[in-house]
Design a protein that fits this description.
The complex is a heterodimer.
Chain A: E1 18-31, H1 35-42, E2 50-63, E3 67-71, H2 78-86, E4 93-98, E5 101-102, H3 108-117, E6 118-121, H4 125-128, H5 135-145, H6 154-164, H7 181-193, E7 199-203, H8 211-228, E8 231-236, H9 239-245, E9 248-253, E10 256-262, H10 263-268, H11 273-281, H12 320-324, E11 330-333, E12 336-338
Parallel strand pairs in A: 3-8, 3-9, 6-7, 7-8
Antiparallel strand pairs in A: 1-2, 1-4, 4-5, 9-10, 10-12, 11-12
Chain B: E1 14-25, E2 28-40, E3 45-49, H1 56-63, E4 71-80, E5 83-84, H2 90-96, E6 101-104, H3 118-129, H4 134-147, H5 153-156, H6 166-178, E7 184-188, H7 196-213, E8 216-221, H8 224-230, E9 233-238, E10 241-247, H9 248-253, H10 258-265, E11 314-317, E12 320-322
Parallel strand pairs in B: 3-8, 3-9, 6-7, 7-8
Antiparallel strand pairs in B: 1-2, 1-4, 4-5, 9-10, 10-12, 11-12
Chain lengths: 353, 336
């Protein structure tokens, strides 16, 4: 059964074209041995190349107009997956289809168009904006290079982009350091939108912002979604943000997708024990002097992940099979997939919540 | 050790009275902490909540007397065990700091020396404050590591900070803070950089500690939902002042100050899914160019002419203070 992780994506459920299809995608990062290491290894020293399976055979389909939330703790591979989907990092294995076509097989012109269609908004606007460029240059550079506007029209084009992201065009001659964190994030959004993308990957885009500013940026994302008919992959560790924004939620743990379901289902009937413990650990504002629920143990090192189900050392329900065999990501209800052996037990019918 | 007095009769561990900390910069005087008063009782947890630049961290640093030039405490009192820390000499502070008041930082590497083993650092910390043999200090270090939930403390004592994960490093920092059984711990965003499951573990440990050792805790954070489950009292800071102060359930269930109402309203879980979040318009004002009167007036939906004067901190409901002329006395709409 361990081969079923490569099963094809489930048949079409919702309407809407497939924007992105990720099929069996993996990404490995290896620390190569240096010259001395190679010699020592030849002489029999216990040194090996260290390989991290950041993303391990992930399937994911995102339809046009959808907002998919990608959730996981640090080191689970959510950012690596996001970068591959956005097209700025090639996968080690598997294919990523953009509107049904493999981006790597496209001619240079089509490939460039496809790259422009998918844009990314990062967590820290200060390190993703060039500190030596003025805002107008940051926003205007790409559309000019790609012929989306002319040099004479550029000024007005940049003004429109800034207004759309909630920035006053008066500030276009300023540098990024002259803005507050929330405004800087708006510059990053204006820059991404300036090349007229259809698909945005937001990697922890509101994580560094204060609550009141975070609400403004989240509202901007939702407004832009309606105005421009955007599709989002929204990566976050913050479940409440994902719950608010997403149509569908994908949960990752140590490089693998452990659960995938419509948002309401994840938050009301989570199936995987990891999802359940994650939900239990989220501090809630309604709680008063509560005993904090704790998942035992640490997130294991992705260099040396546990055998079988990656979550078994921390799982309260783990049994022998979990240690030996990788569970498959299976449909437990229409549109609800989970990667847990407990679902195969008779009389189980889904985990107790 | 002082004889323990029954908790009800005991004075608060810490009383901060009209504290003012200002930074005398070339651009002008920044009142980072402006007329701040609160109490922390024995074994109680105070949540000090605010957005960036609200003065919550400077308040914590002021209590530790760690404010550096060009900043200095320019007024008020910090009463700790009958002593005003504002007037204490540097030598006295050295005796108190780390010994009777400990601090935990957001980044545990601010506490830990990367080139020394954990045992060296912990034993050194203990011997700095009391006469204790190397062997006893080691024993105590081991016990404290076990207390904060570090597995196999004997082996971990011999490790270097980089050999720990982020969550474990924070536990070590907490253990060092606990070595001297301090009366007060000032914790500045200690779980902000951690994953939720690890944050849950740390919060559970801290809760247990406050309950069993009687240590008082000031928990500084920007995250209302963390203190909701942890704290007894909450002080909400805005632009260097306390906007609202009271018991957790009073402040979170019946917020008086429009800023608290706005803050609670913008939490995603309090909004209907898919609908626009209630947001506070505008942004936090620069402390250099505050408008006269209430610092929140430009963002406040209830602002009126009276708000151009300085609102005093007033006990609007029993044991529930707010600095506002037009508080939400009717039940504010914050719950979704």
């Amino acid at each position: 059964m361990s081969t079923t992780i490569q099963e094809a994506p489930s048949p079409v459920r919702a309407e809407g074209d497939r924007m992105i299809e990720v099929v069996g995608v993996s990404r490995r990062f290896a620390k190569r041995l240096d010259f001395a290491g190679k010699i020592l290894a030849k002489l029999g020293a216990p040194i090996r190349e260290e390989v991290v399976h950041a993303v391990d055979k992930v399937d994911l389909t995102i339809r046009k107009g959808e907002v998919v939330g990608l959730v996981g703790e640090s080191g689970c591979g959510k950012s690596t997956l996001g970068r591959m989907v956005a097209g700025i990092l090639p996968p080690s294995d598997g294919t990523i289809l953009w509107k049904g076509k493999d981006r790597t097989g496209l001619g240079s012109k089509d490939a460039r168009a496809a790259m422009l269609q998918a844009q990314m908004i990062f967590q820290d606007p200060m390190s993703s904006l060039n500190p030596r460029l003025k805002v107008a240059e940051i926003i205007g550079e790409a559309p000019l290079v790609h012929g989306l506007t002319t040099r004479s029209e550029l000024g007005r084009y940049v003004d429109d982009q800034m207004r759309r992201a909630g920035l006053d065009p008066v500030f276009k001659a300023r540098y990024p350091h002259q803005f507050s964190g929330g405004q800087r994030q708006r510059i990053g959004i204006a820059r991404a939108l300036a090349v007229q993308p259809e698909f945005l990957v937001c990697d922890e885009s509101v994580a560094a912002l204060d609550v009141s500013i975070q609400a403004q940026i989240l509202n901007l994302f939702m407004k832009l979604r309606e105005e421009l008919d955007l599709t989002y992959l929204f990566i976050s560790h913050d479940l409440s943000v994902v719950e608010h924004l997403s149509d569908r939620v994908v949960i990752m743990y140590l490089g693998r997708v452990v659960e995938e379901a419509p948002t309401e289902v994840v938050f009301s009937r989570a199936n995987h024990p990891y999802t359940q413990s994650l939900l239990a650990a989220v501090p809630r504002i309604e709680a008063r002097k509560k005993a904090f629920a704790t998942v035992q143990g640490e997130i294991p090192s992705p260099l040396n992940p546990p055998s079988g189900c990656h979550f078994h050392p921390r799982c309260p329900h783990a049994f022998d099979r979990c240690r030996a065999e990788i569970p498959a990501l299976k449909e437990v209800a229409p549109g609800h997939k989970s990667r847990c052996h407990l679902n195969d037990l008779p009389n189980h019918g889904g985990m107790p919540v | 050790m002082e004889p323990s007095i029954p908790a009800s009769a005991a004075p608060p561990t810490l009383q901060v009275r009209n504290l003012q900390t200002s930074f005398f910069t070339r651009a002008g005087v920044v009142k980072a902490v402006n007329d701040v008063s609160f109490n922390v009782g024995r074994g109680k947890v105070l949540g000090l909540v605010g957005e960036s630049g609200s003065g919550k961290t400077v308040t914590g640093f002021s209590i530790m007397r760690l404010v550096d030039e060009p900043g200095r405490i320019s007024g008020g009192e910090i009463l700790f065990g009958g002593r005003d820390l504002v007037k204490a000499s540097e030598e006295e502070m050295r005796q108190i700091r780390g010994n009777r008041i400990a601090m935990i930082f957001q980044d545990p590497m601010m506490t830990l020396n990367p080139v020394l083993r954990i045992d060296t650092q912990m034993i050194e910390t203990m011997q700095a404050h009391r006469k204790i043999s190397h062997e006893d200090a080691r024993q105590r270090a081991r016990d404290t590591l076990g207390m904060v939930g570090i597995p196999s403390p004997d082996e971990r004592l011999k490790a270097y900070p980089h050999q720990f994960s982020g969550g474990m490093r924070q536990r070590v920092a907490i253990a060092i803070a606990l070595l001297h059984e301090p009366e007060l711990i000032v914790a500045d965003e200690p779980t902000t950089a951690l994953d939720v499951t690890i944050q849950g573990q740390i919060l559970a440990e801290v809760q247990k500690l406050a309950a069993t050792t009687g240590t008082s805790i000031i928990w500084i954070t920007h995250d209302l939902s963390v203190v909701a489950g942890l704290a007894d009292d909450i002080a909400v800071m805005y632009a260097g002042r306390i906007a609202e102060y009271g018991a957790v359930s009073d402040v979170l269930d019946h917020p008086l100050h429009p800023y608290t109402v706005g803050l609670l309203g913008s939490v995603p879980s309090r909004n209907k899914r898919g609908e626009p979040l209630r947001q506070i318009p505008g942004m936090t004002p620069s402390l250099l160019s505050l408008p006269p009167g209430c610092p929140f007036q430009n963002r406040c939906p209830r602002a009126a002419d009276v708000c151009r004067q300085d609102p005093p901190m007033a006990e609007i409901l029993p044991a529930h203070e707010a600095r506002c002329f037009r508080p939400h006395l009717e039940k504010a709409e914050v719950a979704a």
